[in-house]
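TICKET: design request
STATUS: open
ATTACHED STRUCTURE:
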């Protein structure tokens, strides 16, 4: 197995943002004994309240939502190139009905700081502890966003996670 090394949260900022656009990243919530993975194509990586943060948007109808609500933790896992079909699969089936980790041959590793696992096959990992959450309020959004992103009016919960640990494959720079 490839050794994972600590890196600053902004070390692969551009690559993380590019991966959002290219195929999405994998959001894991829960515990090693019972976890879920979903694909996300939206998120914000930055600094707020003197903390490195990662904000993710999860609809209450998603299986992942309850895990984050119950644990207050999540990990964001940046996939390696070649994992596009896995990322697509994880975004099209529900963890309520499928063990996506087993079905896609994904290995869970324990988090280093939090109790939420990471996906070993991914290039980089952000461990996050929720420091703030809010629900999207429809009346505060422009009509074009409501129409394109919320045609079913299923508004996200926005989770702002403090990044408490960031690590990547030892040879990550060579793979990017």
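STATUS: resolved
RESOLUTION: sequence designed for all positions
ATTACHED SEQUENCE:
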């Amino acid at each position: 197995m490839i050794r994972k090394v600590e890196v600053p949260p902004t070390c692969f900022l551009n690559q993380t943002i590019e991966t959002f656009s290219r195929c999405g990243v994998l959001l894991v919530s829960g515990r090693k004994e019972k976890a879920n993975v979903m694909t996300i194509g939206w998120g914000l990586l930055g600094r707020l309240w003197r903390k490195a943060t990662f904000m993710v948007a999860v609809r209450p109808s998603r299986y992942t939502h309850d895990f984050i609500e119950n644990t207050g933790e999540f990990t964001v896992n940046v996939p390696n190139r070649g994992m596009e079909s896995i990322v697509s699969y994880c975004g099209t089936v529900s963890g309520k009905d499928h063990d996506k980790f087993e079905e896609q041959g994904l290995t869970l590793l324990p988090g280093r700081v939090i109790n939420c696992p990471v996906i070993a096959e991914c290039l980089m990992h952000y461990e996050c502890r929720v420091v703030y959450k809010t629900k999207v309020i429809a009346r505060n959004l422009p009509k074009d966003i409501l129409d394109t992103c919320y045609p079913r009016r299923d508004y996200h919960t926005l989770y702002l996670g403090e990044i408490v640990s960031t690590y990547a494959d030892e040879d990550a720079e060579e793979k990017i």
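CLOSING REMARK: The mean pLDDT is 94. Residues 13-22 form the longest helix (10 residues).
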